[in-house]
Amino acid sequence: MKVRLTANGNEVAAEVEDRTLLVHFLRDVAGLSATNVGCDTSSCGACTVLLDGRSVKSCTVLAAQADGCEITTVEGLADPAGEMHPVQAAFRAEHALQCGFCTPGMVMAAVSLLAENPDPTEEQVRTALEGNLCRCTGYHNIVRAVLAAASERRPS
Amino acid sequence: MSILGTRVVRTEDPRLLTAGGTYVDDLRVPELTRAARVTFVRSPVAHALITGIDAAAAREAPGVLAVLTAADLDDLPPPPPDDGGGGGAGEAAPLPLGGPWAEPLLAVDRVRFVGEPVAMVITTDRYQGEDAAELVSVDYEPLPPVIGTDAALGDESLLFPAAGTNVAVNFGAPADSATFDGCEVVVEHTIENQRLAPVPMEGRACAAHWADGKLTVWVSTQNAQIARFILAGALGLDPASIRVVAPDVGGGFGAKIGIDRDGLLVAWAAKHTGSPLRWAETRSENLLAMTHGRAQRQVIKIGGSRDGRILAYRLEIVQDTGAYPRMGGFLPFLTSLMATGPYDIGKAETAYRVIVTNTTPISAYRGAGRPEATAAVERAVDLFAAGIGMDPADVRRINLVPPDRFPYTSPCGAVYDTGAYAEALDKVLAGAGYRELRAEQARRRERGDVRQLGIGLASYVEITAGDAAGGETARLVVHDDGTATVYTGSSAHGQGHHTAWAMLVQAELGIDMDKVRVMHGDTDLIPMGVGTYASRSLQLGGVAVQKAAVDVREQARRIAADMLEASESDLELDVDRGLWHVRGDPEASRTWAEVAGHAGEDGLAASVNYTEGQPTFPFGTHLAVAEVDTETGKATMVRHVTVDDAGTVLNPLLAEGQRHGGIAQGVAQALLEEMRYDSEGNPVTGTLVDYAIITAAELPSFELLASETPATVNRLGAKGIGEAGTIGATPATQNAVIDAVSHLGVRHIDMPVTPERVWTAISEAREGR
């Protein structure tokens, strides 16, 4: 079937098998390989992207379901001048990534969280990120980074 | 001021955060543009004879290029001759065992664990592979599965009939009752250190290309050079004809040392079929077929006097090494070496047996033998403290090796280099507010609160760079544009090597770290190296980089002296500005670009193979605070306070990151994670739905206290930090949960201390059982 969607502002269209997962469409067709596949049970969140602004696990969405939608991956977060998004900048400043494999999904989940709740408590951050697994950081600095990014965006 | 010791943010991060890493499955190199996909057909049964394989239907399926079985493995060198290793009493564990214990690449006539590779399907695309693999029909004649320690030791069903036993290694001293003579109190307990799955977020992945007599293998590994060595042996190739590349690696935790059976098969198949191939396992495959860790049954026996002095300790281990004796056979050696931990115990004995069972093979997992030692002795100390009615912190302080005893030779034969063990304990107690925590615990006990408080301690010492003599390599080149390149034999998969090595170069040479490129994990560029495991990187690979920098600096001094027409002894390097000048005349100076441009044909470069290092012994204390709901048995971790002393710290940001990750994995073992099998050998935790990886919601923020006792055996003063968190956090957490319900009569709960186990322990204690 034919799938046409917008990925990070660029239109991508291709004829794919009906069963093609969105994450494979993004990686193999759109050439956006930052989004990783970390499990096969929708448990780990490594594949998290924004679909029309809301976070989804792209291993659990068919490409066909995203037809006509706007997708944002971590490659599309920085501004056109290359300036990192506040969440990306906070992840770097707080050492919130090590091997980097969960990072694209984790960043997108954090962006989605802050869109819904711009001023979360530590407990709210921890609960909101429960569906995104990281094996390197113990989450400590990820939580700090999300709180720092929230505080950065808060009007003083 | 030197950049060393400062909180430098990572050079790796902008790329990982904006473009994502390039892991094996992300590679878009020309050699792999037409690569086909490998899908493994794996055994669905734990123990069976293979009586037939019918691949005809699979071969006809859409997109199938080939189906390969053991019968196709006819172009491999013969296995190495039986060296007679294994099976005998009194032998330390060779690894992996050959002879009757040898592990095939594809199963030949017998399968020994669920997930063992039986056939390979090669297709043009990944979905076709999943479809075609289901069409490969394998006939299995079931054999009685050997699951669990007792079944293995019973020797009724054998995994390797030619070996005549399921006990691959038998080592150590028989129990001597006289060891505990003179003890006023002796406590004995059998405890489980359960089987865990490492679960790096990137599973195993491999791609391979064969052309013109050269094999190129991209593999998610901790050690490209070791992988090349293993590939050369397994495929019968000259190492010079193999290039191994480790691109970005999404975590390893010990389970990606070298290259294992599945990766070897991908490389072999690329050569055998002539088609470039890719393989990236699914998570369900990963949980079945990547090696697991831990899996020890331990009998601990501890004795001492009523005033708190520990006089004798015995540790007996049965190590389940799964279906094949890979590195699992070596783990109890390390556990035995570190058995007495940081305590000065007069008499100590260890003994172990290594058994095979119809389960996934066991290998290294973060800590690899040392968390098991610490878990055993820390439980033993708490049981002893309960036995004599003394505060567990006081028992620890009485028995810790005092600072004036270093270097200290333990009764198990380890030589602890430097330490301040009691200081670490007291720092944690003060930082946590131990007395107030105990007071709060007493108030809750007095009131009979549903939510009780538990305080768990673990003091530890571990060994890092145990194989220091294996060394590590570094090559440093300064280019005539003023930049530098480091080629390191060490290997990064999240630790921050690129940042750390660039800091070392800047500190020695004054070349700004932004101008230092770090290359690793490509055997064409770096033929010699060992890589990353055993928390060895900084103390071996880092020292090698620093030595190379010093060598380059002295070469540059000669060149700059020549350029400035001065004597070498008058030359100075201004490290802040990266300029060479004559002492007292800072105006006339030469840049690194100028000096490198003047270096002649060989350029300005140095190579180091650093083999003079020695193992180091990091130490510390963890304190965990748990709240336990006595009605449901659920434990919630509320605080975790630690000292992890790994000598002089190069970059606190990186060191803390290592501690955080280690603590989380330790808490995970104590509370949640366990790889389980049913009695038929079917994994019942084979997906991430069932295998309870710890999440952000189950952890508190950690309270890390600083402590630096420099190592004396290397010039950086560094010890390893990669595994310490796991080693300390596991028993501290377990002890905290048990402590929360100890006033109800509970003395021990095995890990993971799930609500069910806690609730059952409380019920049994109340009923007086």
Structure explained in plain terms:
Chain A is an alpha+beta fold. Chain A is built from five helices and five strands; from the N terminus they run ββαβββαααα. The longest helix of chain A is centred in the last third of the chain and has 14 residues. Chain B has 769 residues and is α+β, with helices and mostly antiparallel strands. Helix content of chain B is 28%, strand content 24%. Chain B contains 18 helices and 28 strands. In chain B, α8 crosses α9 and α16 crosses α17. The longest helix of chain B is centred in the last third of the chain and has 27 residues. Chain B is globular and about 85 Å long. The relative contact order of chain B is 0.12. Chains A and B meet through α2, α3, α4 and α5 of A and α1 and α16 of B.
Number of strands of chain A: 5
SSE string of chain A, helices as H and strands as E: EEHEEEHHHH
How large a portion of the residues of chain A is in β-strands, by DSSP E? 5-15%
Unreliable runs of chain A, pLDDT <50, ≥5 residues? none
First-last Cα distance of chain A: 50 Å
Topology:
The complex is a heterodimer of chains A (156) and B (769).
Chain A: E1 2-7, E2 10-15, H1 22-29, E3 48-51, E4 54-57, E5 70-72, H2 86-93, H3 103-116, H4 122-128, H5 140-153
Parallel strand pairs in A: 1-5
Antiparallel strand pairs in A: 1-2, 3-4, 3-5
Chain B: H1 13-18, E1 36-42, E2 48-54, H2 56-60, E3 64-69, E4 110-111, E5 117-123, H3 126-133, E6 137-142, H4 149-154, E7 167-172, E8 185-196, E9 205-211, E10 214-219, H5 224-235, E11 242-245, H6 261-273, E12 277-280, H7 283-289, E13 293-304, E14 310-320, H8 331-337, E15 347-355, H9 370-388, H10 392-399, E16 408-409, E17 415-416, H11 421-432, H12 434-447, E18 451-461, E19 472-478, E20 484-488, H13 497-509, E21 516-520, H14 537-563, E22 571-574, E23 579-582, E24 585-591, H15 592-597, E25 604-610, E26 619-629, E27 635-645, H16 652-671, E28 703-705, H17 724-740, H18 755-766
Parallel strand pairs in B: 1-12, 10-11, 14-15, 20-21, 27-28
Antiparallel strand pairs in B: 1-5, 2-4, 2-6, 3-5, 7-15, 8-13, 9-10, 9-12, 13-14, 16-17, 18-26, 19-20, 19-25, 22-23, 23-24, 26-27
Helix pairs in contact in B: 8-9, 9-17, 13-14, 16-17
